[in-house]
Amino acid sequence: MDWLHGMNRVIAYIEENLTQPIQYSSLSRIVGCSVYEFSRIFSFMAGISVSEYIRRRRLSQAVFDIQNGNEKIIDIALKYCYESPTTFTRAFRELHGTTPSCARKTGVTLRTYPPISFLLKMKGGNEMQFRIEKKESFQIMGLSGYDSAEKEGSLTPLWNKFMKEYDPKLWNNGRPSYYTEPFYQVSAYFCTPGSDKVKTIIGAEYKEAKPEGITLSVETIPAATWAVFSFYGQTGYDKYDEAYTRILTEWLPASQYRRDETAPNLDVYPSGEINENYAWEIWVPVLRK
Q1: Range with the poorest average pLDDT among 47-51, 88-92, 194-198, 225-229
Q2: pLDDT value at position 289?
Q3: Running DSSP on this structure, what letter comes out for residue 247?
Q4: Are 203 and 180 spatial neighbours (Cβ–Cβ below 8 Å)?
């Protein structure tokens, strides 16, 4: 996959459709990956989320329509996919520091955000630790919820709820036999085609009946071969995005493998103090080319 060419095609597509609804599934298909993965990689490479980039471009173009034409504000709002003049004015003020009507006056300072372009830069050279593992089908029991497919950090409440409300019930009296290490986070596998929402489950593998009195979800992970990548140090959305970007744009094209679309990626976190020596993993399902 030529990620450089693909991402620039995404930018061109956005420019051609600023006045039309833009589906993230359409953008992800251009580069040939899931919405979940595309959003992570775009955010890392561009420095802002897909939604924020589109918002900035629409509001930048709206400035020129306001200053150089006689269209009504409501018509310009609808043109750039805002549902009402109120939401348009609010977004316009947040970006430009003034209202659309004031922008028609001369001498008003406004902002513009030109289209970005992705340029070739030297990459690679830094080692990536990985191993290939086969794992039979297993089940994850944990807390599930729905998150934006763009992955802008909204999983934090789900993690907090899991650790504060559910984890103590499972671990206060020692490790139960039905609940094992490590913790898994699974997201992309449960993304409904065409939806901007993705179901996420955070939990651990279990081998016995679900405990009574605790409301937890159970999801089955199919048997697969996995490329397992090890990382050390702090976790966080910026770290995940960088890791996924390197795996999909550097390791996978150079390997003898391709993605296995029948299984999910897994983010895997053992228990332990999170410091510079903390080891966590990303499991990517693969097939030989």
Answers
A1: 194-198
A2: 84
A3: I
A4: no
**CB-based contact 31:38 (threshold 8 Å):** yes
Q: What is the pLDDT of residue 251?
A: 87
Distance CA 225, CA 222 (A): 10
Q: Are 265 and 283 in contact (CB under 8 A)?
A: yes
Residue 39 CB neighbours (<10 A): 25
- Peptide bond preceding 182: is omega within 30 degrees of 0, i.e. cis? yes
Look up residue 269 and give its two tokens. Answer: 């976190």
Rg of the chain over all Cα atoms, to the nearest angstrom: 22
Cβ neighbours of residue 203 closer than 8 Å, sequence gap 6 or more: 140, 141, 142, 143, 162, 183, 184, 216, 217
Using CB atoms within 10 A of its CB, is residue 125 exposed (0-12), middle (13-18) or buried (19+)?
Answer: exposed
Judged by average pLDDT, the poorest of 109-113, 187-191, 223-227, 271-275 is 187-191
pLDDT-based confidence at residue 35 (cuts at 50, 70, 90): confident
Question: What six digits make up the tokens of 237?
Answer: 């959305």
85-99, 107-121, 144-158, range with greatest mean pLDDT? 85-99
* Alpha-carbon distances, residue 105 vs 65, 66, 244, 257, 287 (angstroms): 13, 10, 46, 58, 60
- Give dist(CA 84, CA 92) in Å, integer: 12
Q: Which amino acid is at 9?
A: R
- To the nearest whole number, what is the mean pLDDT of the chain? 79
